Amino acid sequence: MLSDQPGLFAMSTPAFYDSLTPYYHLIYPDWEASMGRQGRALDSIIRSEGGPHLRTVLDAASGIGTQSLALAALGYDVTASDISPTAIERAQREAQQRGLSLHASVADMRHVHDHHHRTFDVVISCDNSVPHLLSDADILAALRQFYACTNQDGICLVSARDYATMDLMGPPQFQPYGVREAAGSRYVLFQVWESSPPHYDTTFYVIEHPADAEPILRANRATYYAVSLSRLAELMEEAGFTDVRRIDDVFFQPVLVGHKLS
Q: What is the 3-state secondary structure (H, E, C) of the chain?
């Protein structure tokens, strides 16, 4: 039988990711390989859109460091921040274990310039992090902070799900990640999406089944704003970025790139 810890309940975004931090790498069949692919993809976009001279990066929603660690391994000078203290602690630990330099701290993406008080050649926010902000006003506030953090002739990269191609209406949807084996335990990971336009709730389930022990269920709930990529592009332009365009088939999600021209 499944244990009763913890049950289904509403959570803040920091609490959602704090709870997922120990298991987040299990989303990927091979986290190390995925980091390498994502780092190379982002590097190719940075080079093609801005040039090889762009070397300082702010990851404004770093999580446990999937993109930050990958770019640091490629030689970028990376500063990482995230709203989850536990995720930042793990990102720092992962960087130390790999011998990488990563300047990591806790910050809400809506206040990253107020927090870091500096600019960077590249600002990134990947893996559908911006849609955790639940209104155009909150997204615009974050994008204005990204703009303030971007050097002249620098770029901003935002990756997000293409909600225009997804049917979020109707009954709850099952989104599986798969079965993983790690540290003597079996893990089953999946999400259930429930629509409440223009938002939707996601409940992230992690079933941990240790060897010779009862399985443990963890269920964490968060809300997203199903904002379209075209609207995100408009908000990037409103924040000050120019030549905003969409890049497909390079990163695992569509990427919006905006420029800050001198």
A: CCCCCCCCCECCHHHHHHHHHHHHHHHCCCHHHHHHHHHHHHHHHHHHHCCCCCCEEEECCCCCCHHHHHHHHCCCEEEEEECCHHHHHHHHHHHHHHCCCEEEEECCHHHHHHHHCCCEEEEEECCCCHHHCCCHHHHHHHHHHHHHHEEEEEEEEEECCCHHHCCCCCCCEEEEEEEEEECCEEEEEEEEEEEECCEEEEEEEEEEEECCCCCEEEEEEEEEECCCHHHHHHHHHHHCCEEEEEECCCCCCCEEEEEECC
Q: Taking the CA atoms of 80, 131, 67 and 14 in sequence, report the sign of the dihedral they define.
A: positive
Q: Which residues contact 92 (CB under 8 A, 6 or more apart)?
A: 102, 104
What is the full per-residue pLDDT of the chain (262 aa) written as tens digits? 333 344 445 689 999 999 999 999 999 999 999 999 999 999 999 999 999 999 999 999 999 999 999 999 999 999 999 999 999 999 999 999 999 999 999 999 999 999 999 999 999 999 999 999 999 999 999 999 999 999 999 999 999 999 999 988 889 999 999 999 999 999 999 999 999 999 999 999 999 999 999 999 999 999 999 999 999 999 999 999 999 999 999 999 999 999 999 8
Task: Provide the residue type at 192 as one letter.
Answer: V
